[in-house]
Specification:
By secondary structure, this protein is an alpha+beta fold. The chain has helices spanning about 5-20, 40-45, 50-55, 80-95, and strands spanning about 25-30, 30-35, 55-60, 60, 65-70, 75-80. The chain is about 35% helix and about 25% strand. Bound molecules: zinc ion (ZN).
Length: about 110
């Protein structure tokens, strides 16, 4: 039997994975926006600390990173999802905004 018969299915699987992982890069003013087709493709390009916390289990929750705003270099990393991109733009447009700051305060 020819070895190429074994090689073809493996190559086909590799090509289908490569086709799914793609990034679109565009600019909005001074901000570079990088939209990834999969979380896996995106997290590979994030700072190491975010790669380490991604998929980390904390009590009953698993941390999943869907986007990141690199303030120093003005780059938005995001999965191809409008809500995530808008969220990351908020980090750019409102530098003092913090997660949960819009939540109603509980009277004490
Ligand atoms: Zn955020």
């Amino acid at each position: 039997m020819s070895r190429s018969l074994i090689f073809i299915p493996v190559l086909a699987v590799f090509l289908s994975c490569a086709a799914k992982e793609r990034v679109e890069v565009f600019h909005v003013g001074e901000v570079e926006v990088r939209l990834y087709s999969t979380r896996e493709a995106m997290t590979k390009e994030l700072p190491e600390v975010l790669q380490l916390v991604d998929n980390l289990r904390v009590t009953d929750n698993v941390i999943k990173v869907f986007g990141y705003y690199d303030r120093e270099n003005k780059v938005i990393y995001s999965v191809d999802d409008a809500r995530t991109v808008i969220h990351e733009f908020r980090h750019y447009m409102e530098p003092d905004w913090r997660h949960g700051s819009e939540a109603k305060s509980i009277p004490n």
